[in-house]
Amino acid sequence: MARIGIITCSNCTQECNCASVVCLGDLRKRRGFFAPYPHDEPLELIGIINCAGCPTAAAPEKILRRVRAIAEFKVEALHLSFCMTAICPFINKYVQLIKKAYPKIKLVMGTHQPTEKERFTSGVKELLCQTLAAPQTMSDMIKGTIKIPQK
Ligand code: SF4
Ligand code: SF4
User: Fold this and answer.
1) The domain spanning residue 20 has which CATH number?
2) Residues 6+ apart with CB under 8 A from 14
3) Which tens digit of pLDDT belongs to each residue from 44-83?
4) Mean per-residue pLDDT over the chain, rounded
5) Residue 53, ligand 1, Cβ within 6 A
6) In terms of Cα–Cα distance, which of 62, 40, 42 is closest to 53?
């Protein structure tokens, strides 16, 4: 049995209302970055938490508070969500810090099957900057109904 945790981008989960449904769907179906786990062994999700938000240039270490919330429960692998790998400018620093703090935990750079990065980035920009009376959410992106203004 593999004990795993997931850490997600707070912009996507908190600002864009993503409930991590695609991450969890692919975990159940053993797709994307969950495919390498043996299919005949249970995969146990110990915890899922979003990042601590923008760390500024001063405090990238604040990610460790969030990692600790999962890491203290005998987690063998920690997945950084697809959204983190696609849009986070701090990810390389986070990887370095997490590896140093938790050398025994395997870091996996992704969760669900990657979608087209440029379209995902445009979608997140639209969700974060929109001024619509009825704001779109990550669900619109997942369902393919998001409207992205043409440049
Ligand atoms: S871009 Fe990076 S630091 Fe900012 S909310 Fe997303 S994962 Fe966290
Ligand atoms: S990787 Fe996709 S489904 Fe998972 S939290 Fe990020 S945006 Fe949501």
Assistant:
1) 3.40.50
2) 50, 53
3) 999 999 999 999 999 999 999 999 999 999 999 999 999 9
4) 94
5) yes
6) 62
| Cβ-contact 109, 94 below 8 angstroms | no
Given a cut of 70, is residue 86 above it in pLDDT? yes
Rounded mean pLDDT of 107-122?
95
Please tell me whether the overall predicted TM-score, pTM, comes out greater than 0.90 for this model.
yes
pLDDT score, position 151: 66
CA of 41 relative to ligand 2 center, distance in Å: 24
Tell me the HSE value of 76 on the side-chain side, using a 13 A CA sphere: 7
Ligand 1 atom 1: residue of nearest CA: 88
Our count of domains for the chain comes to 1
In a domain, 14, yes or no: yes
Q: What angle do CA 97, 98, 104 make, to 5 degrees?
A: 130
Token pair belonging to 57: 């240039």
What spacing in Å lies between the alpha carbon of 122 and ligand 2's midpoint?
Answer: 15
Q: Domain span at residue 68? A: 2-116
- Asked if residue 129 belongs to a domain, the reply is no
